[in-house]
Q: What sequence folds into this?
């Protein structure tokens, strides 16, 4: 079946990831290969397991949980930006399990289930990040 497919469209790309591919890493590699350092993305599909979490402002750390099993991706959204010389993906995901119960949070990584269909809008203007002492986050400037 092969790996991810991409198609250039007006304003960006449509990416179609295949079963078993690491969602975040595959998108990050695509952005790196195409020198995409600024954009916004949204997507749907399915995953087999995901590591999601939330950011705690008090201890200034992400806290992640591993979810096992199959989930529908109700919504995947986020952005592409640059911090120093590194491309950063900031992604949030909402998932539904077999009982249609939803869970969501900051996405660290997920394995694609059947497919993931993503629209990646590319910006001409740069999105750069800098460390913010108050929150401990690398925020878009």
A:
């Amino acid at each position: 079946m092969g790996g991810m497919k991409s198609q250039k469209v007006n304003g960006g790309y449509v990416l179609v990831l295949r079963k078993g591919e690491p969602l975040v890493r595959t998108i990050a590699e695509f952005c790196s290969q195409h020198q995409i350092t600024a954009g916004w993305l949204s997507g749907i599909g399915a995953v087999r397991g995901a590591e999601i979490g939330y950011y705690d402002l008090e201890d200034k750390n992400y806290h992640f949980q591993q979810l096992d099993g199959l989930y529908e991706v109700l919504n995947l959204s986020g952005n592409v930006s640059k911090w120093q010389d590194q491309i950063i993906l900031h992604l949030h995901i909402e998932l539904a399990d077999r009982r249609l119960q939803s869970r969501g949070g900051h996405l660290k990584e997920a394995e694609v289930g059947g497919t993931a269909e993503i629209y990646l809008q590319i910006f001409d203007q740069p999105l750069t990040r800098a460390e913010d002492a108050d929150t401990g986050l690398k925020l878009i400037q």
